[in-house]
Amino acid sequence: MVTGAAGFLGFALVRRLLADGDAVRAIVLPDDPQRRTLEALGTTHSQLAVFPGSVTDPTSIAAAFPGATRVFHAAALVHAWAPWERFYTVNVGGTQVVARLAREAAVARFVLVSTSDVFGLPDGQRPLDESSPLREWGEPYADTKIAAERWLRSFASESGLPLTIVYPGWIYGPGDRAFFPSLADAIRRGAMFFWFRGAKLPWVYIDNMVDACVLAGTHPAARDRAYIVHDDSDGPTLEEVCAKIAAAIGVRPPRRHVPYAAAYAVAVAGELVWRLAHLRGAPPLTTADVKAFGQQFHLSTAKIRRELGWTPRLGVEDGMRRAIAFLRNAA
């Protein structure tokens, strides 16, 4: 069973599980545009059942759980301009709903898709690993994912829910309709600029991430463990990725750099205006964006390599080429 099945990772995971011969139950929001894509997939794969519902409403998804052996909880509110309460309802409350239903169904493994953001902003060159403390950002996504994990670990300890947590870096690749497209939109509008030179994000190609999720759900050693997942690549930098995107969409690459403090001040001012004026949509720059793209993160994947034998099957050079080709064709 996969929650968030219409999302970038969730949909890729559904397809992989079907390819592996598994029967899959996919939970998708009733009004999600990708629901039709999932239902169309179900017409060619009899082992796929689509369950419209919300992880915040147990009555709408309870029928998906009886008989399930593995639950992959990928549903979350991630890149959104929404009140903290909404992030809490989805990311914490939704995790509580899904975990309780999974425990009632006596599943063999519950895989939580978290984020490497839970380890906080880097405070030096020391790589963050799974033993690093959880540290808040003062931002709704990271902080509610931390709250969800703390609750879930306590619940699993008390109830015996067999839990595995995965912490992905920046997931990219074909099928992405949020991250690279948003960069492309900013580049096309001439609104893209940088406030940290040479930032190398902890990239993880979508297929490599799906491999990690499958291992987390099946490997005996993964029970009651947690794993950081990224491709251990030395680049490309954000500037280099934006240059590739610019070439793909036929515009000049962005080159403007501003001080971090200036970018942060612009984000704070923009968020204030949006809140006071009750403007629709999201401000062009948020404080979460400034923090996320204004640091050099160092993450270790030694644990998942050692314990589960995971290695990225596609390197970042090939992954980026495929991601850019998908973006170009989708434009």
Lay out the secondary structure:
Elements lengths: L1 E2 L4 H12 L4 E5 L6 H10 L3 E5 L5 H4 L8 E4 L10 H21 L4 E5 L26 H20 L3 E6 L1 E3 L6 H10 L14 E3 H13 L6 E5 L8 H12 L10 H18 L9 H6 L9 H7 L7 H15 L1
Parallel strand pairs: 1-4, 2-3, 4-5, 5-6, 6-9, 7-8
Helix pairs in contact: 1-7, 4-5, 6-8, 8-12
Radius of gyration from the CA trace?
19 Å
Helical amount among residues, as a percent range?
A: 40-55%
Q: Bin the strand percentage.
A: 5-15%
What's the arrangement of strands in the largest beta sheet? 1-4-5-6-9
Mean pLDDT: 96
Which class best fits the helix and strand makeup?
alpha/beta
Quick structural summary:
With 331 residues, this protein is an alpha/beta fold. It contains 12 helices and 9 strands.
